[in-house]
Design goal:
The complex is a heterodimer of chains A (150) and B (347). Chain A has six helices and five strands, in the order αβαβαβαββαα. Chain A is an alpha+beta fold. Chain A has one domain: TATA-Binding Protein (2-Layer Sandwich). The chains are: A alpha+beta (150), B alpha+beta (347). At the A-B interface, helix 1, strand 1, strand 2, helix 3 and strand 3 of A face helix 1, helix 3, strand 3, helix 14 and strand 4 of B.
């Protein structure tokens, strides 16, 4: 390997180091639940994702007599991409669309999602890796937006 | 020339990275605030700003806790952080409570673990568990009462044992932790010698680490999958029937791409059925509020070439990312339920 390639690889590995993600992403939004939910949807939209469904877990729990604060699961994705993947790789469907769980904790909110990077281990198919890498970058950016929401 | 250019860039980046002092506040917001609160007031995690806690722990305890985490108890091991970043985090944690100064150094304990076991059973086990396993759950959070600022930590946790020195444990026992149910043992009438014995017993705890993917889980597939001899429509009805019998309330049964496309373009050959056992969910949320990632209980049905397949995620394979041993048990239970459900649906 030529030295120049080695150096470039080293640079990339150093830059990429902070991106090596833990498999569970969790951030605290300083905003209350309603505002955090709005910020989350806005950020997803900015990153080119469509919110496909919001599962109102708290509503279901309360209807069964359980007490809970606001707790929702937001399903999102690129519709065309998800449909294409569901045809080419149906075994990936249980993980689609992507989702972020958002719940209230006092005056702030907590957002949790699994790192799309985790899917690389579960689905080593080379055709899928570029999708996972892009999702990882975007989801991390969305979580950062939420964490820094003002 | 390209080599020299690339080498120069490399040196420049490395120098900047080396010279930049990590910002503890930023690091805390990114890595800790979700559980410990933006100002260290706690939530899912321990209230680090609590004066009673700050007074009894030293910087090494904080540093090692960050490094080792608490295997099986949610707090991850931050092995990816540099020493400088960990030091910045410790400084940030200390900044939450500037007024609190530590207690005077204690004489290193050399106690009798056998006598300590008896004292532990009578004075500690009610909160910390008979074997130091700590309180259940992940901390005070949204669905839990806020009448206690802290849950009793797991003293047998390998992360705790690696982080806590004997002197730190002794200090905590001697002085208690103001603002928590942890009372001073001296005020309860125990002698310093008794305290030394309890320290010796706590030190005798040992537990295997669960931070990494357990060997028996590594071979588990990410999804559970069966092939159905029925059509998509027939399989859908069978799954709904079985889910109902398994106490899962059907929330919806719709085409997979509903919400992605206009109604006329929905694909009837790919369906999802969402269900929920709210009692089980409520129990799981008390164990770990992050469990929403598994929600809802979903069965996916798809036509693949000339076959119909039905699938669910495999909670047993995924539970390790939560670093919560209690949740592992529930995930195993869920995986069994999914397996049984899929088997019945394709019979």
């Amino acid at each position: 390997m030529r030295i120049s390639r080695l150096v470039v690889l080293l640079i990339i590995s150093i830059i990429a180091l902070p991106l090596c993600a833990e498999e569970l992403m969790m951030v605290r939004s300083p905003k209350p639940f309603v505002e955090s939910m709005a910020a989350l949807q806005e950020s997803l939209d900015l990153h080119g994702y469509k919110v496909m469904r919001i599962q109102r877990v708290d509503v279901g729990l309360k209807s069964r007599g359980f007490s809970t604060a606001e707790y929702r699961v937001v399903f999102f994705g690129d519709a065309a991409e998800i449909q294409t993947l569901s045809q080419s790789h149906p075994e990936l469907m249980p993980f689609l669309p992507l989702k972020i769980t958002l719940f209230a904790e006092g005056d702030s909110s907590l957002a949790v999602t699994n790192s799309p990077h985790m899917l690389k281990t579960l689905y080593p198919d080379p055709d899928l890796q570029a999708h996972f890498t892009r999702w990882e970058k975007d989801v991390r950016a969305v979580m950062d937006d939420l964490m820094l929401a003002h | 020339m390209p080599t020299r250019w690339a080498f120069g860039l490399f040196i420049s980046i490395v120098s900047q990275l080396a010279l930049a002092e990590p910002d503890g506040a930023v690091l805390f917001t990114r890595h800790c605030a979700a559980c410990h609160g933006l100002n260290g007031m706690g939530g899912v995690g321990v209230p680090l700003a609590l004066p009673g806690l700050q007074a009894t722990v030293d910087d090494d305890y904080l540093r090692l806790s960050i490094r080792h985490g608490r295997p099986g108890r949610v707090m991850p091991a931050f092995t990816q952080l540099t020493d400088q970043e960990v030091a910045a985090l410790v400084k940030q944690v200390r900044s939450f409570n500037k007024s609190s100064s530590g207690f005077p150094a204690v004489k290193p304990p050399h106690g009798n673990a056998i006598h300590g076991a008896k004292l532990f059973a009578s004075h500690c086990a009610a909160c910390h568990g008979a074997h130091g396993e700590g309180s259940h759950g992940t901390g005070v959070t949204f669905s839990r009462p806020r009448d206690l600022p802290i849950l009793a930590p797991a003293l047998n946790n390998p992360g705790f044992l690696a982080a806590a020195s004997d002197s730190m444990i002794k200090t905590t026992l001697l002085h208690g932790r103001e603002g928590t149910p942890m009372l001073s043992f001296v005020k309860q009438g125990l002698s310093e010698s008794d305290v030394d014995d309890v320290v010796a017993y706590v030190r005798s705890f040992a537990q295997p680490s669960q931070t990494t993917l357990p060997a028996d889980t590594a071979h588990e597939p990410p999804i559970l999958l069966r092939t159905s001899k029925y059509s998509v429509a027939e399989t859908t009805e069978r799954v709904k029937d079985v889910m109902t019998r398994y106490n899962l309330r059907i929330i919806r049964s719709v085409p997979f791409n509903q919400g992605m496309v206009e109604t006329k373009d929905e694909n009837p050959e790919q369906r999802i059925i969402d269900g929920c056992d709210f009692g089980f969910l409520n129990k799981a949320l008390a164990v770990d509020p992050r469990v929403g990632l598994f929600l809802p209980c979903r069965v996916t049905i798809a036509q693949r070439e000339d076959k119909v397949i039905i699938m669910t995620i495999n909670p047993k394979r995924l539970s390790y990312i939560f670093n919560n041993a209690e949740l592992n048990e529930l995930c195993e239970e869920m995986s069994k339920l999914y397996n049984d459900l899929l088997d019945e649906a394709v019979q």
